[in-house]
Design a protein that fits this description.
This protein is mostly beta strands and 272 residues long. 11% of the residues lie in helices and 57% in strands. The strands form 2 sheets. The chain has a 12-stranded antiparallel barrel. A 5-stranded antiparallel sheet has the order 4-3-2-1-5, with no helix packed on it. It is elongated and about 65 Å long.
C-alpha cells in the first residue's frame, strides 16, 4: 500500500509539473489539422471558424477558406503543435470518465489475444465489445461487453457510470460476471487522474466488498506519456498497482505496463 501511495504522489507531482510547463509555453495561436471529405489534410493556423466555413493560414499554401460541407473533421493541436492524446477514454484496462465523440472509436489488442472494439454511440454514450482468441478457437469464446455514460460537469471535471459484463459462450459451466462502477476524472485529456469505485457481480449476485480504482495519464512530450492504473479492495489491504509508458503516434498508441509482482503487459490501440 505504501508503494502505491508513493507512486500516486509522484504521478500527481509529474502531472502538475508538466501541466505548468505547458501552460507557461503555450501560444496564443491555435494550430489545426483540417481533414477534408476528399481525404486530403492541411495543417495551418486557425484564423476563424463558424457554422458555414473555416479559414486557416497554411505555411505553404497561404490563406485558405473551406466550407463546412467540405470538412470531415478538424483536429486542434496543443500549444506545442502536438496531436491530442488519441485515447483519453482509457488507461490499460481501466477507464477514465471521458467518452468518445459520436462516431469515434478504437480497436485494442492485448497480448495478441484479447481483442476489443470501442465506439461512441453519442457524445456521451460509448460501448465496448470484445473476444479472446484461444477460447474462440476452442468453441467456448470468452466475451466481454461494456457501456459507459459520461457527463462533463466542468471544464476539467467529468463523471461517468460504467457497466461491464463477462461471459463464456457455449460453456458447460455457466459463467456471468461483471462490474458496476462510478468514475470521476479531473484534468485535461492530456493530463488527468481518475478515481472510481464500484461492485462486482457474478451469476446474479453482487459482492458486498467494493473496489477502489485510481488511474492517471500525463503527457511528457510529442511521443510519450506516463500511465498508472491501480485497484484496491475496500475490504482489506490488498491492492494491485502498476505504472507504465504510452507511445503515441497519429492514430496508434502502444502501452507498456509493469504490474507489482513482476507482471508485464503490452497492448496496441488503433484509433478508428
Amino acid at each position: 500500500m505504501k508503494t502505491m501511495v508513493t507512486m500516486i504522489c509522484l504521478f500527481l507531482a509529474t502531472i502538475n509539473f508538466t501541466h505548468a510547463q505547458e501552460q507557461s509555453s503555450s501560444k496564443d495561436t491555435q494550430l489545426v489539422i483540417v481533414y477534408l471529405e476528399d481525404k486530403s489534410e492541411i495543417t495551418g493556423e486557425l484564423i476563424s471558424e463558424n457554422e458555414t466555413e473555416i479559414v486557416i493560414n497554411s505555411a505553404s499554401l497561404g490563406l485558405l477558406t473551406f466550407q463546412q460541407s467540405e470538412v470531415k473533421r478538424v483536429v486542434y493541436l496543443d500549444g506545442k503543435g502536438r496531436m491530442p492524446n488519441p485515447n483519453p477514454t482509457r488507461y490499460f484496462i481501466g477507464q477514465s470518465a471521458y467518452t468518445h465523440e459520436k462516431g469515434e472509436g478504437y480497436y485494442q489488442n492485448i497480448y495478441g489475444l484479447f481483442n476489443l472494439v470501442s465506439y461512441g454511440i453519442t457524445d456521451r454514450l460509448s460501448v465496448i465489445g470484445g473476444v479472446e482468441l484461444i477460447s474462440l478457437y476452442s468453441g467456448n469464446p470468452i466475451l466481454f461487453a461494456n457501456a459507459k455514460y459520461g457527463i462533463p460537469v466542468a471544464p476539467k471535471l467529468n463523471l461517468a457510470a460504467s457497466v461491464s459484463y463477462l461471459t463464456v459462450a457455449g460453456s458447460l459451466t455457466e459463467l456471468s460476471a461483471g462490474t458496476i462502477n462510478g468514475l470521476v476524472t479531473y484534468g485535461s485529456k492530456e493530463h488527468h487522474l481518475t478515481v472510481g469505485t464500484g461492485y462486482a457481480f457474478a451469476n446474479g449476485e453482487i459482492d458486498s466488498s467494493g473496489v477502489l480504482t485510481i488511474g492517471g495519464i500525463t503527457r511528457l512530450n510529442k511521443r510519450f506519456a506516463l500511465l498508472t492504473e491501480n485497484y484496491i479492495l475496500t475490504s482489506g489491504e490488498e491492492a494491485i498497482i502498476s505504472g507504465g509508458v504510452r507511445y503515441i503516434a497519429k492514430k496508434l498508441t502502444i502501452d507498456l505496463m509493469y504490474f507489482e509482482g513482476g507482471f508485464p503487459a503490452i497492448d496496441i490501440v488503433l484509433k478508428l
